[in-house]
Specification:
Blueprint lengths: L1 H11 L2 H39 L4 H11 L2 H5 L5 H7 L4 H36 L6 E2 L11 E6 L4 H13 L3 E6 L5 H10 L4 H5 L3 E5 L3 H5 L6 E6 L2 E4 L3
Parallel strand pairs: 1-4, 2-3, 3-4
Antiparallel strand pairs: 2-5, 5-6
Helix pairs in contact: 2-3, 3-5, 5-6
Length: about 240
């Protein structure tokens, strides 16, 4: 009996490492599957959240992601989901749907931005009543009939005359000081020297800005120069 038991034990002994290895492998596979399932759940949750932020369904968001990884993503990198889906619409109905969605969201965005800008304007008057607000180049509200005037502080009579003539027209105007070095005080000193109307700056019908390379790009080397944004981008005007 003892010999039989010993034989059985000896016969089973080689199987223990195999069984242990098999169990370890199964455990690792189970862990891998668990991690994969967790990651998939997180990705699905993130896709659902992103879709909701843009007013899209999960399926629409997934299609946007596919389009972004393909030809459209190369042609138009960084394009927002609604515009991407609208451009790549498969039917007229889809195109109309995304156009409506785009307009609604743009309206909400503009309303929110204008509301905040009104608060910013009020804050300037409240916190710094005697200081003219100066904006970076990207903040001015160009377009919609606004003119952009580029001047230098050392331009002298030509720039001063151009400023005076444009102020007299009462048109919305964005003034860019070339060579300001990004220093707000340099812009304010120039504005005080030319008696720029403070009330118009505070009302945003006139803005004071640092030039960030627009003059070199669009000004054709003229100084002063007046630009207006049209269908073909920034163009020199006759003003």
């Amino acid at each position: 009996m003892k010999l039989t038991s010993i034989a059985l034990v000896l016969g089973l002994a080689p199987l223990f490492p195999v069984a242990a290895a098999l169990q370890t492998e199964q455990s690792q596979q189970g862990n891998t599957a668990s991690v994969s399932t967790t990651l998939q759940a997180l990705e699905e949750e993130q896709s659902k959240k992103s879709a909701q932020e843009w007013g899209l369904t999960t399926e629409e968001w997934q299609r946007y992601q596919q389009l972004s990884k393909g030809r459209r993503g190369i042609l138009s990198p960084g394009l927002d989901p609604i515009t991407t889906l609208g451009i790549e619409a498969r039917t007229e109905e889809e195109r109309r749907h995304y156009a409506d969605l785009s307009v609604k969201q743009d309206f909400q965005r503009v309303e929110a931005e204008l509301a905040f800008q009104r608060e910013v304007n009020a804050a300037w008057v409240r916190v710094y009543p005697g200081i003219l607000p100066v904006q970076s180049a990207g903040d001015a509200r160009q377009g919609n009939g606004r003119l952009a005037l580029f001047v230098r502080s050392d331009c002298g009579v030509p720039c001063e005359t151009k400023v005076a003539s444009l102020l007299a027209t009462q048109r919305p105007l964005d003034i860019y000081l070339v060579g300001s070095g990004g220093k707000d005080e340099a812009v304010r000193d120039w504005a005080r020297k030319l008696a720029i109307p403070v009330e118009r700056v505070k009302a945003k019908t006139l803005t004071l800005n640092h030039d960030r390379g627009q003059w070199i790009k669009f000004g054709q080397g003229r100084m002063p120069v007046v630009l207006q944004q049209g269908e073909n981008g920034w163009q020199v005007t006759a003003y």
